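USER:
I wish I could look at a protein chain and see how it folds. I am handing you a single protein, as its sequence and its fold in token form. As I understand it, each token names a local backbone shape. I hope you can help me see how the letters and the tokens relate. The protein I mean follows directly.
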Amino acid sequence: MRALMEPVLAHVPPGSRLLIVAAGPLAGLPFGALPIGSTIASAQPLLARYEIAYIPSLALFADGRSTSRRAPTRGVFAMANPTASPAGAGVSLVASVAEARIAASLASASDVRVGDNATETAVKRAPLSEYAVLHFATHALLDARVPERSAVLLTRTPDDDGLLQPREIYGLRLGGALVVLSGCQTAAGRASAAEGLHGLARAFLFAGSHAVVGTLWDVEDRVTARLMIHMYRELSAGRPLVCALRAAQLAAAGPHPYAHPAAWAPFLVMGDPAITVVSANASPIDRALTAVLASVAVMLVAIAVAGVCAAKR
């Protein structure tokens, strides 16, 4: 940390926004988790002092800023817990349904597709350019050696294999939407000598998204859902994306951030950190939070009880 950042940070006041343009092996480094402090016991993550976002290159960032964002007419298009995984992921993402519904409560005219309805075909047929946010609470497949084989995993249909891959993402028309990829390793990829990591997040940026939220390594379903719900609560208050995610991460980190770094450190913003998504027809998200969280809590308790009963047999 001292050799990498401190000579620069000495000239950057706390509270500033850092835009990270990293290449090669540094592109996959969670800069927000880098410790600052004289001892391990007193160390705090860089994220506690600064707002942090990643951009593939200054040229791409400038190009995105110069492109006007289309005013969305719809709220959130969300996909959660798809079934019939083409890659055999197998693990049901129960809590992802809650985060998708919370995302959808950000604004009216939203669309949530769950389970059998969370299909690749639905994504390709939806008017994505009309939405403010695209939220994928699904598994992801990372191929760091051949990024073109990476994929967002969705329910397959007779028309599609359920693998939404970069070559197909490039063909989507996103209209500047915020894309949230809350699955595992969605911001990871093959390191480039010039433009960050080649992977899913970068593909969505090139398809027209102004910003992508993703993860650098594997994340746990329920932990991720809590962090995403907190982020959307912040977004509903009109806060910029980088501030909303940072608040959620710091809340998850708590007073001892390095006790459980996997709960907060993998998440990052790639692209325009200042993007806001609250709309004029936003719904009361706190009321929606109460209703959705209550139903999910009952569901998780039922699953836990079923597991205990099965173990006693």
